[in-house]
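Bumping my old thread because nobody answered last time. Still need a sequence for this structure:
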């Protein structure tokens, strides 16, 4: 036994409102009357005083987090590439020792002549100034 609906709901979805109309149907399924209709209006998501979006602060914080995360991923990818090419030591402490070198002084010294060779160390990866020169420009993009 099929049971046919005796009404139809029509919706109008807007950006700040929802309109509705509930229609009664006759035996043929055609509208024969309006049972109820109306509209629900809700705030547009803006500050009434400044007319600025309420999501603007969240969007700004999210974009700063994304920018920071991309920056950290780029730095990590560069460090992994330098370690894989044996241009940076695998040891974290040895890498930290390179951070104390000033890249601008190293660049000035490299223009005047070859950089001094690092002193002989028992460690196969001794901190050298050249990888510090390669790492530094990546830090400040754009």
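Sorry it took so long. Here it is:
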């Amino acid at each position: 036994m099929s049971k046919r609906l005796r009404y139809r709901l029509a919706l109008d979805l807007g950006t700040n409102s929802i309109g509705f109309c509930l229609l009664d149907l006759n035996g043929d399924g055609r509208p024969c009357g309006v049972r109820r209709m109306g509209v629900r209006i809700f705030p547009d998501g803006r500050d009434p005083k400044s007319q600025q979006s309420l999501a603007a602060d969240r969007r700004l914080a999210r974009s700063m987090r994304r920018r920071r995360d991309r920056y950290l991923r780029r730095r990590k990818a560069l460090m992994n590439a330098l370690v894989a090419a044996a241009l940076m030591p695998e040891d974290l402490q040895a890498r930290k020792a390179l951070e104390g070198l000033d890249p601008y002084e190293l660049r000035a010294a490299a223009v005047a002549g070859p950089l001094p060779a690092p002193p002989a160390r028992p460690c196969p990866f001794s901190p050298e100034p050249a990888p510090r020169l390669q790492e530094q420009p990546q830090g400040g993009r754009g």
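The helical segments are 56-84, 92-99, 103-112, 129-139. Let me know if any region looks off to you.
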